[in-house]
Task: structure prediction
Amino acid sequence: MSEATCRLKIKAVPGASRSEIVGRLGESLKIRVVAPPEGGKANREVLTLLAAKLGLAAARVTLISGQSSPAKVFEVSGYTAEQAWARLLA
Result:
């Protein structure tokens, strides 16, 4: 049996006063991070925040697209989309 994986659309807002998952924004999940949008710092912080909230090692969360855009897609190993959304919005 293969392990569940899903892709999550993320709207990243770098340079925020605190890092947090804001909630749904259409089909995306809006996430604010303190890190600036330079040198991949904000991407790493979004990835770390997702992994922590899902209880996964950072290696199980991968940035698929949107390296230099606020609209990003992350792939998550170990969750279906429904499970991931439920846990992230809890």
